[in-house]
Design brief:
Elements: H1 9-18, H2 29-35, H3 51-63, E1 67-70, H4 77-82, H5 93-105, E2 120-121, H6 129-133, E3 134-135, E4 140-141, H7 143-146, E5 151-154, H8 162-166, H9 169-174, E6 176-180, E7 185-189, E8 193-198, H10 217-224, H11 229-232, E9 237-240, H12 246-249, H13 258-275, H14 290-296, H15 301-313, H16 319-335, H17 342-350
Parallel strand pairs: 1-8, 1-9, 2-5, 5-8
Antiparallel strand pairs: 3-4, 6-7
């Protein structure tokens, strides 16, 4: 389609009456799209301290792993989660078109037109099943579809109604949601990264003798048990977030930028794309089946013994085994290493806080 830009109505009249030439306006879609890729709204360079959590976020982004952050109020859980989309690999033009289509169905496309940044959705904990999954007389996409190719952030996870959280289980596995009505059925894609955060207890503080509010072990257990095992089963990384000390907060030094972290994440994703090129359903490590885990996460005797010892000493549950191997594979990919070794296993074991005895029993 040929498009001509004009400054005033006289130019239009002269064009039709006198045949005055107009200059054609040419927009290079790819060029315009790529312009906006490297300027994220939220940047990791703004985060003071929390180096361990940034590393955890990088691993989650590189392998597409779902992650849960556990920590007291004000530790920076929400701030870190908001910056996760900035380190995910840049959207391809195909992904941008697909994401824009979904948002346009509900009339949420901004003035910018084509979406260049990955979506970040953060619904309130009072959300209903329909609002999360989608529905209505003429089924509209819900929050999980609006998060497609991006991040769904559930802040204060135990505060969500249990039945709302349970509807997440199938979309997390299938990466799409089907809404059926009497006359027709609609399927919306929902391939998103789940990022959740929670306080470790109703009062917000855990094992802190100086805390303003403390909770008994029974209260804590009741609070944590609101998250079902099957949902927790789909979250690969659990990490504890501690408050940042004053020395770190008052530093003038800027941290590593999101663009720099994203380069490492993109490189690791490229390794995974090559690894799973024969598969139509698996594109990154978090999606690996048990069979693929056995194939791509082969351990030597030292690593096996390390994992066995850790599982026995830390009382890790059986569900943690496959998760540790998947995360280890991603850590190895970030290093550009072919084989998973003991150092990768050791780091991955640290990211299973909720599987330890005393958290969820």
């Amino acid at each position: 389609m040929e498009v001509y830009g004009i400054d005033n109505i006289k130019q239009v009249i002269d064009y039709f009456d006198k045949g005055e030439p107009l200059e054609q306006t040419i927009v290079n879609t790819r060029e315009e799209f790529e312009k906006n890729l490297d300027f994220p709204e939220h940047d990791f360079s703004d985060v003071k301290g929390q180096e361990g959590i940034k590393r955890c976020m990088e691993i989650a982004a590189a392998g597409g792993h779902n992650i849960i952050l556990i920590g007291p109020p004000g530790a920076g859980k929400t701030m870190l989660a908001k910056r996760l989309p900035s380190i995910l690999p840049p959207m391809t033009l195909h992904e941008a078109l697909e994401t824009t289509k979904i948002h346009s169905v509900v009339g949420r496309v901004k003035d910018t037109g084509l979406m260049a940044q990955r979506p970040f959705r953060s619904p309130h904990h009072t959300i209903s099943n329909v609002a999360l999954v989608g529905g209505g007389s003429f089924p509209q996409p819900g929050e999980i579809s609006l998060s497609h190719n991006g991040v769904l952030f559930l802040d204060e996870l135990p505060e969500f109604k249990r039945d709302v959280l349970e509807v997440l289980r199938q979309p997390l596995e299938d990466r799409e949601v089907t809404i059926s009505r009497a006359k027709f059925t609609v399927t919306y894609p929902s391939s998103f990264m789940l990022v959740a955060s929670m306080n470790p207890s109703p009062g917000g503080y855990f094992n802190d003798p100086n805390a303003p509010v403390t909770s008994s072990p029974a209260e804590m257990q009741r609070y944590l048990s609101k998250i079902s095992g099957p949902l927790l089963d789909r979250i690969d990384i659990h990490i504890e977030v501690t408050p940042v000390p004053f020395e770190k907060l008052s530093e003038d030094r800027k941290g590593e930028t999101s663009v720099d972290i994203r380069k490492r994440v993109t490189k690791a994703r490229e390794i995974q794309t090559a690894r799973f090129k024969e598969s139509d359903t698996v594109h990154y490590n978090a999606q690996m089946s048990t069979k693929q885990i056995r194939k791509y996460c082969v351990l030597d005797e030292v690593s096996k013994q390390l994992l066995k010892t850790a599982m026995e000493r830390l009382n890790l549950s059986a569900r943690a085994y496959d998760r540790i191997l998947k995360v280890s594979r991603t850590i190895a990919d970030l290093e550009g290493v072919e084989e998973v070794n003991g150092s990768h296993i050791s780091e991955a074991i640290q990211y299973r806080s909720l599987d330890r005895e005393g958290w969820l029993g």
